[in-house]
Amino acid sequence: MTLNLAILFVSAVLVAGVYATMSYGLALIFGVMKVINLSHAGAIMLGAYVAYVLIVGLKMNPFIAAVVVVPPLFFLLGILLERVFVRPVRKAPPIASLLLLFGVWLMMQNIAYIIWTGEVRTITTPYTMMRFNLGAVPINVNRLAVFLVGVFTLLALHQFMTRTYLGKAIRATAQDSAAAKLAGINTDQIDMVAFGLGTALAGMAGALTALIYAFDPNFGGSYMLKSFCIVVLGGVESFLGVALGSLILALAETLSVLWIRAGLQDFVSFVILVLALLVMPGGLPELFQRRFAVRQR
Amino acid sequence: MSREIKYPQSFKPNCPKGGVTKVIQRVRILAGLLTLVMLGSSLGAFAAPPAPKEIVIGAALPLTGTFAREGGYFKDGYEMAVKEVNERGGIFVKEYNKRIPVRLILYDDKSDATTSVSLYEKLVTEDKVHALLGGYSTPLIQAHTVVPEKYKVPYVNGGGASTAIYARGYKWIFGLLASIEKLAITLMNWIASQQDAGKLGKPLRIAIAWENTSHGKDFQKGILDKARASPDRFTIVFDEPFEIGSKDFTPLLQKVKAANADAWLVDARIADAILMQRQLTELGLYFQVISYGPRGTEKAIRDALGPAADYIVSVNWWHRDLPYPQARAFVRKYEETYKKPAEWFPALAYETARVLFRAIEKAGSLDKAKIRDALAKMDMRGSIVVGQRVWFGPNGQIDNDYVIMQNLPGRGPVLVYPKYVALGEAVVPIPKR
Questions:
Q1: Distance of alpha carbon A20 from alpha carbon A243, whole angstroms
Q2: What ipTM describes this predicted complex?
């Protein structure tokens, strides 16, 4: 039983790494621009295909492709999307950008169908089936690597947001766009950078998850639903919250299987989403703030 | 009323007495008969309309969206069958005593059930098709088959196997895929044959997992029915559904491990089968038999899993290695034309179209009810399907055999069951690595 729990716990932590990597971009764009980026799923899917071309077609090292090559390409794609699709509707009601970005997702899907067809694809690397044992707990090298990249991304984002001028400007714009503008920050440019960065993170997430999962042009859709759940749980403006939200969701899904059928894992996710929205709409940070405020009194 | 006829004088002396009247009567009778014959033939020509320039057949396929890959294969199969029949001048229709070429109208339903229904409505009401070919995937077929049934248009598909399609008492719907229940039963029959050969023990402890869809539920039903019928052979020790597109099967597999099963029988799609088999290998789980239902021997799975795909058994409606000359001819022609491996999708699509053409020919008419009746009575021999025979049960679904394949190291997928098509011996139990 203890071994079983240990295996499930390790599995949940590794899945949390995947979830967190997929959710940072969504949280960043919503935090700064208050835009729900439905094209996030499309960027994850295209990230997987670009990685496929680089790794299978051009024989590039999988992690160099996913971490070094894909993000800059998707940063540029994000800037393009922001300039062409998002900026013209920034002042329109939120439903306009929501629907527009949903349309962009569908366009991305259809482009993928045209280029790569609907065939299920996989990226098989020397690490795909490689594993080692931590005590008696088997750990897949590929999943561990994706988890470590997720942790590294969290640290890098934290450093970027707290130590650099651009990061601070992004945070200032996220907190109060009008005040940031009064302080001399070019918020239009910050929006563009935030969208680019969010898309780069989505592309990287797609490239990394393609090393674990098979994919087709519909890839990303189910991830996005989980990402919404995580962002609501973790709070829309906190990367640490996103990481924590990912861990809670992954643990709940994984451990729930001990008591309920595996077919109800998604049910668990969405019960968490509904409860989070009802009880703590601001996510875990709000909950911590409330606890802190009570203690102060 | 009689009339007196005046004859020339010279004519009279040569005629016998009363002879003139008889001749006139005969002439009158002949003239009357001639008139009747001419009238009859002209009326007949008016009753039979001229033969149509073409026989219009329509289908909506998922050419984009989730099922685009399979839809593309179906398009190939349909077009190949139409091209073949048109090269012979079309389908012979006895009513018109001539061959009439086929025109195929294909629409893209974008893998969407609502769009699919609208397009079949359009094919019937606007394009005025004579008959319909089916789409692909159970959800889409289940949705759009209400249209041919409502408008009474003969419809044949080769892309939907779920019993839900055929359990509604419809009279105009026919299908060339045997049920998923039968797939599961075939798998269990094969396991029983391995038990009889002394390769597997009795009772075999079986763990089953199935995708949470009607496809998965049919699979589960087939396995459970068979297990209940033969408790001396099979014991079900684990039975759970799972969500399509799961990110981690470790929790499920941990439960399976605890169940201490001998055989792992799953109904899964390619992406789920790949992840499940990868994680099963990582966790070091061992089973004497592993099957992912209709999946497991595709190139995509073998490429993704490498040696971890060895010995997986799959059950399918068709395989390119079937040892029938007509199936071999189809494979050769298809692969030469489309430069793609002949999977079951184009094969079943091709045969579906040929079955419809045969029904039209047998009906000898383009009357929809007659074509439907010909389909209901269909008994087509020399087919490329398993068993070489196409016929339909009272529910409109075929009930032919499945084939079982196994990935053998260095050989790829090999046909191992039933015996009359087997090209190799199954390796059971799976050797421990």
A1: 5
A2: 0.81
